[in-house]
Write a structure and sequence with these properties.
The complex is a heterodimer.
Chain A lengths: L12 H4 L7 E4 L7 H12 L5 E5 L1 H6 L6 E4 L5 H4 L4 E5 L16 H16 L5 E3 L6 H5 L8 H8 L6 E5 L4 E4 L9 H4 L2 H17 L7 E5 L14 H15 L3 E6 L7 H4 L4 E4 L2 H11 L5 E5 L5 E4 L16 H22 L6
Parallel strand pairs in A: 1-2, 1-5, 2-4, 3-4, 5-12, 7-10, 8-9, 8-10
Antiparallel strand pairs in A: 6-7, 6-11, 11-12
Chain B lengths: L8 E5 L7 H9 L2 H6 L1 E6 L1 H11 L5 E4 L12 E5 L15 H19 L5 E4 L4 H6 L7 H8 L7 E6 L2 E5 L9 H4 L2 H17 L6 E5 L14 H15 L3 E6 L4 H6 L5 E4 L2 H12 L4 E5 L5 E4 L16 H21 L1
Parallel strand pairs in B: 1-2, 1-5, 2-4, 3-4, 5-12, 7-10, 8-9, 8-10
Antiparallel strand pairs in B: 6-7, 6-11, 11-12
Helix pairs in contact in B: 1-3, 8-9, 8-12
Classes of the chains: A alpha/beta, B alpha/beta.
């Protein structure tokens, strides 16, 4: 399997020469969690190679122990000039200060507003893409917005899309869960031919456009133990999954399955596909996190903008302790810029298959 | 009896003669520690064991005994208790046949009889083929339920999986995913916790550390994505913990397996089939062992199947089967203590 890193140019400097089409905006996320301090750590690692800037409240940034030089910028276009010497941040006014480890609903409008700002920069093509720091889901309610089921759904809404697809990308496995944050008892109702078809279409398109794979291979899991064992352990494979896979095969796409979820993630099997599509959250997340806990990244497919995020949460309990690891954030920023580079390359020389 | 000299008495049956089982037995018995530290009784047709020797290209000597009457411990080579179950010409390598299923069932039943009479202390079986077993007279969903019935055992049983000292059990098993939520209840969860706790003790872990997985994504996220954690799982775990069991949970299932990787737990109780099997198979597809949990004797096997596609070729890996054999011995040596 081709890992995300393999398409990153060997000389990081190359990115810096590409102007703002290489700059990633990193959102504040929950200011009382680990997001901001991880931005400092990520900058140490990426300063010479991957330009990014933070959108955050000045007072929050200044209240942190400065483990790296920071510099305030006035617009995204200022990032490239300074990002080799300091972590650039664009001030976004939050209502109040933040206390490490304590969620304060008063700051919800700031959290949501900084996401909207980043998305707008990307929609206006002033940056290459966005990487979002973790938030708690309550912020949408507390910011007086309608009840979005998550970060991804909110960003999709801002982009005018209604079927975002969530991909988890680790070094050893990429996987898309067909259903996400719903109770396990609702999963069998949540999967449908329509959703699977949409998800496969978006995934194939993204593998070509975002990951530069000319002939993407997808393996689809079953829903039930042993992929239903010929109907003995559930019928969803026969009634929903198999017909959709067949339709894609008729169109000449390399989509295979449904496979028993407990065997399709082992090493030998993983070599036969570029992406696994699984039926529910934990069926996707167990293999990704068990294989590669620290470096897995969340990518939203099917949006006009590039959006990635680290696959951990706000980690309130670890805030300001300096122990949180920035691996996933670093990979998320790197992957965002890789995807944008692939999109540009793809637009210049479209492959015959897309 | 001097404990340092005591060797476990372990019976081995060939499983499905059309699969890789007989070859695995030949390879296992050629491992020096195996023959030195255990008393092995081979149960089944002599020609089946010889077939395995030819397949593996590894020989060993069989010493005919009548296990019911003879002292089979102090014999010059591997004690073999003949049980005529199949004719040589009936064996079709790599295929499901009535004859192979009948053979496997007959050897299993004799093995269970010998266990019950204390002739052997543990039973290790080479892989069965479920379809063949059904042709050969299996009336239950699997061999575990057959054993329960054959032994008239009334207690709770479940299949346990183990890999390098890490164990999983599951509260539900071979049922459709949509039925899982309704099948989760306090009795089943507590039974699963108790059983894995007891089995780990029987395999030599003094105070097993057990984590219980949640059912829903993010362990239900405080009730946002399901309420089984709040309504059923957490109260059940609390009850079990009151009985001096080192158990906690429910933990989100996408990170609970890291607790094993970080050596924080010995066992994880999962809620459904794929939850545990995905992680376990990822961590060591070829080495896993299945323990017939609850059955009042140590019975183990390799977690893999008959591997018909490579049967007879001599290329089967003995890792899992050897682990199954060694675990059976460990369980014999710790069984009494754990029950005391």
């Amino acid at each position: 399997m081709i890992c995300p890193e393999t398409t990153i140019p060997s000389s990081g400097r190359l990115l810096l020469s590409e102007g703002n089409s290489s700059v990633i905006a990193l959102t504040s996320g929950e200011p009382s969690g680990v997001g901001l301090e991880l931005a400092f750590k990520a900058w140490q690692k990426l300063k010479g190679s991957h330009p990014f800037f933070l959108i955050a409240d000045r007072s929050h940034v200044n209240s942190l122990e400065q483990t790296c030089p920071v510099i305030e910028i006035q617009s995204p276009e200022n990032c490239l000039g300074v990002c080799e010497h300091a972590l650039p941040f664009l001030h976004y006014q939050f209502p109040t200060s933040s206390i490490p480890g304590h969620y304060n609903p008063e700051n919800a409008p700031g959290i949501v507003g900084s996401i909207e700002t980043a998305v707008q920069f990307a929609l206006d093509k002033r940056i290459a893409g966005i990487c979002t720091n973790p938030i708690t889901k309550e912020v949408f309610n507390h910011a007086g917005r309608k009840n979005y089921s998550g970060h991804t759904e909110f960003i999709a809404h801002l982009c005018g899309e209604d079927c975002p697809v969530m991909m988890l990308a680790g070094r050893k496995l990429r996987v898309v869960p067909l259903t996400r944050h719903i109770p396990l008892r609702s999963v069998h109702q949540g999967i449908s031919k329509k959703l699977l078809k949409q998800t496969l279409e978006i995934s194939l398109q993204s593998l070509r456009k975002d990951f530069g794979l000319q002939h993407p291979r997808i393996a689809v899991s079953g829903l039930n133990p042993h992929a239903g064992e010929g109907g003995l352990l559930g019928l969803e494979e026969k009634e929903i999954i198999e017909p959709v896979i067949r339709d894609f095969q008729i169109k000449g796409e390399n989509v295979q399955g449904p496979f028993s979820a407990d065997t399709m993630f082992h090493k030998k099997f993983r070599k036969t596909y570029d992406l696994a599509v699984s039926m529910y959250h934990d069926q996707a997340l167990i293999p990704v996190k068990t294989l590669d806990f620290y470096k897995s990244v969340n990518v939203t497919l099917g949006l006009p903008i590039v959006r990635t995020s680290p696959d951990h949460g706000t980690a309130f309990d670890m805030a300001r302790k300096g122990k949180a690891r920035a691996d996933s954030l670093i990979e998320a920023i790197k992957l965002a810029s890789t995807i944008q580079r692939n999109r540009i390359k793809n637009a210049r020389s479209p492959s015959p298959t897309s | 009896m001097n404990m340092t000299e005591r060797k476990p008495r372990i019976g081995i049956i060939p499983g499905d003669p059309s699969g890789i089982g007989t070859e695995l037995i030949a390879k296992l018995l050629n491992v020096e520690e195996v023959s030195n530290s255990n008393d092995v009784l081979l149960i089944g047709d002599r020609h089946v064991f010889e077939l395995g020797q030819a397949q593996a290209d590894k020989g060993y000597d069989l010493y005919p005994v009548d296990a019911w009457k003879d002292d089979w411990i102090n014999v010059p080579s591997f004690a073999h208790f003949e049980n005529p179950t199949i004719n040589p010409e009936e064996i079709v390598i790599g295929e499901v046949t009535l004859a192979s299923g009948t053979s496997a069932m007959a050897n299993l039943n004799l093995g269970l009889d010998l266990l019950r009479q204390g002739i052997i202390e543990a039973l290790v079986f080479a892989p069965f083929n479920k379809e063949a077993l059904k042709l050969g007279g299996l009336r239950f969903q699997d061999e575990l339920h057959h054993m329960k019935d054959y032994l008239n055992y009334e207690g709770y049983i479940t299949e346990l999986n183990t890999l390098d000292g890490f164990w999983t059990s599951r509260v539900t098993s071979h049922i459709a995913l949509k039925e899982v939520s309704d099948a989760i209840n306090e009795t089943r969860i507590i039974n699963s916790i108790n059983l894995i706790n007891k089995t780990l003790k029987r395999s030599g872990v003094k105070r097993p550390r057990i984590a219980v997985a949640a059912l829903n994504p993010h362990a239900g996220d405080g009730g946002n994505f399901g309420t089984e954690e709040i309504d059923v799982i957490a109260p059940s775990v609390k009850k079990a913990a009151l009985k001096q069991i080192a158990v906690d949970g429910p933990w989100p299932s996408d990170t609970v397996f890291l607790k094993y990787k970080n050596n924080e737990v010995d066992a994880i109780v999962t809620m459904y089939h794929d939850q545990g099997q995905i992680a376990l198979k990822l961590m060591g597809f070829d080495r896993g062992v299945t323990v017939l949990g609850g059955i009042p004797y140590p019975i183990t096997t390799a977690a893999h199947g008959t591997a018909f596609d490579i049967a007879g070729l001599g290329i089967a890996d003995i890792g899992a089967f050897r682990n199954a054999f060694e675990l059976a011995g460990t369980m014999v040596m710790n069984w009494e203590q754990a029950n005391g």
